[in-house]
Every structure is written in C-alpha cells, then in structure tokens.
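for ur thesis appendix - Alkylhydroperoxidase. copy paste whatever u need, i formatted it the way the template wanted (i think)
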Amino acid sequence: MEPRMDLFATETGARLTKRFANLGQVVARSPLPKATQELVSLRASQINGCGWCIDMHTKDAAAAGETAVRLALVAAWRESTVFTAAEEAALALTEEGTRLADAGEGVSDATWARVREHYDDEQVAALVALVALINAANRLAVIVHQKGGSYEPGMFAAFAEQA
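the 3d part is after this line
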C-alpha cells in the first residue's frame, strides 16, 4: 500500500503533531520508567499494525539503551523471561486498553490490580494516558498508510514546546 497522504505536510497535521509531541512530553517527564514507556508504545503499535510507530518506538528504545532481545520479545512478552513483573503488568494493561472492542469488560479488574501493585498514582496516570495517546497516533498513521523505516530517533523533539 502506498501512503494516502503526507499528514505531516498539512497545516492541520503539523498542528496535531505539535500537540501530540507536547502531550508525549507530559508522559516522558512523568515518573513512569522510560523503558516502560517505550515497551508500551511498541506493543500497542504492534497490535495496531502501525509500521511508522513500530519503527519510531523500536529506534527510540534502542537509542535509549534497550536491548535487541527485549525489543524482539515484546510481541511475545508472556512467553519470555526478560521483563519485570511491573513491565508485564504495563504490557497487559496496554493490550487490554488497545483491544477494548475485543473484551466486553475492557481492562479487567485483575489487570488493573496487577498495575496498582507496581505503580503509584502518578505513574498510573501517565500509563493510562500513554496507552490512549499511542492508540490515537497509531490510528492516524494507519489510516493514511504512513510507512515505517524513515524515522530517526528524536526527530519530533523540535515539535514539542518547551514546558
């Protein structure tokens, strides 16, 4: 599939990109561990089939020091031994929060309880916001067929306003 349009080349797309970058900075500056942020973003993007976001979050995670083994195993996190219990809880929340239409209850009480065992209120607020943001970004990119492969780590930093 060819890209349908360059969303970033439009005035509206540029404004959206800036707002997404600003919201992303709120999460980035939160106490939610950076590794968890990238793992969550990568997993939601895998589920949604967003090549652009998979490219971005794989490269950003690698640039921040994430290992190739952990990045390769995100899609099979339940069948691996390289993630902490806290990361597993965040990945479970990500999957359930991404697949809302697949389960009548949305995020289960059991998954919520796992998350609350490992994260405080500030971290949970960031985690919930991150799941919502990455799903919105995935949908924008998938709808316009934004292709992965050209992202360079940090390339959207200029879009974020300094807070």
